[in-house]
Amino acid sequence: MERRPIMAGNWKMNLLVGEAESLVKGLLAALKDTADVDVLVAPAFTSLYPVARLLAGTSIGLAAQNLYWEEFGAFTGEVNAKMLRDVGCSHVIIGHSERRQFFGETNETANRRLKTALSGGLVPILCIGETLEERKQGKTLALVQEQLEKGLAGIGPEEARRIVLAYEPVWAIGTGETATPEQAEEVHAHIRKLVGARFGEAVAAGTRIQYGGSVKPDNVQSLMEQPDIDGALVGGASLKAESFARIVRYKA
Ligand code: PEP
Asked: What is the 3-state secondary structure (H, E, C) of the chain?
């Protein structure tokens, strides 16, 4: 099955509103004729609304970097799915390794966030991936399996169709060290096999699995040539319009 590539820029805790607006204007100009790739940007919460206004009516979509699972109420500092939809988000990143590492996120909390994203009409991008220590110990495939099983607990095949997965080896995030295309493909193929065993072959064939970890204009093409890599989740290189646009246009 042909899977439409999906490229997402995770801006993390960077850019003031004016800077975010400039970046998105640059991207819109650079990506005017890009038709065959889904493109998303994930600004910080403070820039979602102004960026959404610039993206309205364009082909670039808006993602949030996190959400909380309660519907409303006394949860200081949190935002829910409805609020994210309200400011124009279509997608939300769930369980990013920085959330796991610095904010106590677990597979269980990722699962709660994922379910609330789905019921709230957002497409979740569920991030999974091993640390360097886990890779060295030969635990990568088992770890990814556990993250997937727990992260997708209670999800049915119809919901699974709406989920995007992102394989992000923690040792490759923000380090300049990229998994080789072969290393990444091994894990992506394993993930697809697990999705097939759990939700059926049709769901597995349609599931888009992004790779994340120091994706740059120079390495994106060799990653995207792998049969089970369907896109990229990009941190550092998404903060400049020129480099993210080159990643999106990896085929050119
Ligand atoms: C990320 O933010 O998910 C990421 C992969 O970051 P970087 O591209 O900077 O490694």
From this structure: CCCCCEEEEECCCCCCHHHHHHHHHHHHHHCCCCCCCEEEEECCHHHHHHHHHHHCCCCEEEEECCCCCCCCCCCCCCCCHHHHHHCCCCEEEECCHHHHHHCCCCHHHHHHHHHHHHHCCCEEEEEECCCHHHHHCCCHHHHHHHHHHHHCCCCCHHHHCCCEEEECCHHHCCCCCCCCHHHHHHHHHHHHHHHHHHHCHHHHHHCCEEEECCCCCCCHHHHHCCCCCCEEEECHHHCCHHHHHHHHCCCC
